[in-house]
Recover the amino acids of this structure.
């Protein structure tokens, strides 16, 4: 049976899925060894940095936007890094946030881990970002595309090879920024009940992202970017981060468009659940609530081990709403992003949101049985999701997908349950604010890899949005069909970043979403706009999920 765990399952399966492509990409893409590379200097508010100019794109990696989060900075809001003298090298990626279980065996050599292939070690000095730009200090004002990486709120890295911003920067004459920030227990353990010193600890991972956006506001002009044209975008957990930023008063005004790819965070974590998780963590560590400050002095490995023990005890809990994730505290995060209605914070910001047709095939890479179900297996798995409503749902999907195999029906039902229905409800609630426009997409292009069995899996949008189908050939196949689709998709993403409207001559006219028409761009080799393309499934899933 599938064990669905946002962040954890995602990272493990993605490792297997992209390993070959990522290792190959890294071996062929090495700016420091390229004969046509040269150094380039930029000046930030904290000091000068040295990057690489390769074929016209200037790349700066591992730029500090915050101080180390170790020791007395652990579980505290981010602060600026200390200024440095001279010129600091920004030639290699910085630390990814701590996320590995210290009791688990190390990843195989060359494997794409949750931190990415061949990247530096994880560490608490992880408040770093990367910039790709066509020019520095040239006085131009280019759109800025600010990427929030996936992996739930628990894992991942903005320094993964498939997030390389070179092609996107060159294609669109834009500036691309990817970031690392605190995750899991270090970013979202809520100790506020035990000491006012930790009043913000349940949301520090999101506060890191806001701090990075503040760095962009102060510094991006040096990199040829426009601080008044910033688009935040992210996939999976990154999409959830985008939705959370839309609900944070401290982020208001720091971005001007938002794209949510396959990550619907209608709710995050309630304060009650967050405090309970923190209590369980302290119990695992053997620390009294009255001595909570001791968590700042413990070895990192002990904290991570205790965190994974708490997660293990909560097996089956969706970690994005019941685990170490952003807390609705009434101040930093006044309400859930889209519950009971859409947050009114940043209501004027145009939003694009969508999902893929068979999200859940990615999560089944290590579950061979899921791809060869019989009717009994289909009924069993759907019952685990929907209980007594499962027979009617199976009948509906079978009617709407004549000839579909049991495994195909399962993946469609599970994908709509986990992603499709919540995504459509988010679009509906956002549009109900009546301010910034909303654009909805449904990604149905099927990858040819692995004999086509994955169809349109989770993470599918990433290589097309980044124009990285060759780097991510293990996911896309890297063929002419994928390249042609990337040409259309990445241009739409760039157009949205530039204007807040995704329309380009390469796609059909894309109307804004309304609750009446529910216009949806169905993305495939031949893309088309369909009003409410999943109407019957949507209505059935809304009832199943109590999404009124």
């Amino acid at each position: 049976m599938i064990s669905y765990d946002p962040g954890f399952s995602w990272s493990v399966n993605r490792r297997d899925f992209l390993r070959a492509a990522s290792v190959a990409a890294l071996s062929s893409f090495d700016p420091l060894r390229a004969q046509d590379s040269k150094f380039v200097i930029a000046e930030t508010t904290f000091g000068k940095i040295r990057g690489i100019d390769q074929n016209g794109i200037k790349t700066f990696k591992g730029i500090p936007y915050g101080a180390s989060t170790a020791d007395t900075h652990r579980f505290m809001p981010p602060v600026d890094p200390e200024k440095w003298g001279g010129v600091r090298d920004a030639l290699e990626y910085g630390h990814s946030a701590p996320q590995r279980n210290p009791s688990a065996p190390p990843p195989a050599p060359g494997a794409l881990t949750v931190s990415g292939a061949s990247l530096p070690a994880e560490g608490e000095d992880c408040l770093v970002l990367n910039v790709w730009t066509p020019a520095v200090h040239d006085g131009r004002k280019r759109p800025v595309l600010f990427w929030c990486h996936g992996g739930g709120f628990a894992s991942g890295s903005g320094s993964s090879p498939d997030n390389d911003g070179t092609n996107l920067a060159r294609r669109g004459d834009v500036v691309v920024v990817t970031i690392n920030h605190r995750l899991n227990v270090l970013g979202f353990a809520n100790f506020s009940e035990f000491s006012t010193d930790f009043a913000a600890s349940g949301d520090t991972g999101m506060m890191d992202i806001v701090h990075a956006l503040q760095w962009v506001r102060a510094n991006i002009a040096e990199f040829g970017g426009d601080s008044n044209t910033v688009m935040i975008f992210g996939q999976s957990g990154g999409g959830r981060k985008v939705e959370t930023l839309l609900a944070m008063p401290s982020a208001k005004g720091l971005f001007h468009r938002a794209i949510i790819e396959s990550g619907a965070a209608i709710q995050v974590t309630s304060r009650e659940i967050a405090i309970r998780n923190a209590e369980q963590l302290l119990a695992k560590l053997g620390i009294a609530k009255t001595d909570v400050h001791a968590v700042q002095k413990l070895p990192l490995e002990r904290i991570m081990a205790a965190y994974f023990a708490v997660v293990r005890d909560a097996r089956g809990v969706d970690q994005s709403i019941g685990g170490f994730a952003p807390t609705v505290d009434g101040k930093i995060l006044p309400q859930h992003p889209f519950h009971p209605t859409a947050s009114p914070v940043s209501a004027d910001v145009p939003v694009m949101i969508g999902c893929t047709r068979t999200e859940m095939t990615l999560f089944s890479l290590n579950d061979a049985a899921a791809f060869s179900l019989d009717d009994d297996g289909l009924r069993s798995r759907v019952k685990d999701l929907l209980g007594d409503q499962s027979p009617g749902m199976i009948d509906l999907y079978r009617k709407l997908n004549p000839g579909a195999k049991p495994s195909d029906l399962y993946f469609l039902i599970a994908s709509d349950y986990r992603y499709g229905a919540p995504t459509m409800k988010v679009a509906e609630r956002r549009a109900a604010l009546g301010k910034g426009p909303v654009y909805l997409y449904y990604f149905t292009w099927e990858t040819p890899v692995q004999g086509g069995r994955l169809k349109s899996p989770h993470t599918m949008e990433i290589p097309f949005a980044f124009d990285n189908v060759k780097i991510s050939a293990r996911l896309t196949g890297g063929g002419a069909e994928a390249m042609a689709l990337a040409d259309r998709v990445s241009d739409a993403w760039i157009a949205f970043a530039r204007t807040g409207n995704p329309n380009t001559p390469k796609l059909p006219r894309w109307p804004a979403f309304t609750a009446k028409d529910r216009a949806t761009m169905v993305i495939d080799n031949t893309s088309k706009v369909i009003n409410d393309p999943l109407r019957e499934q949507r209505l059935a899933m809304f009832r199943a999920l109590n999404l009124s």
Observations:
- The chain has two domains: 8-347, 353-544.
- The domain at 8-347 is CATH 3.40.50.1820 (Rossmann fold).
- Residues 1-35, 109-118 have pLDDT under 50 and may be disordered.
- The first helix runs from residue 8 to 28.
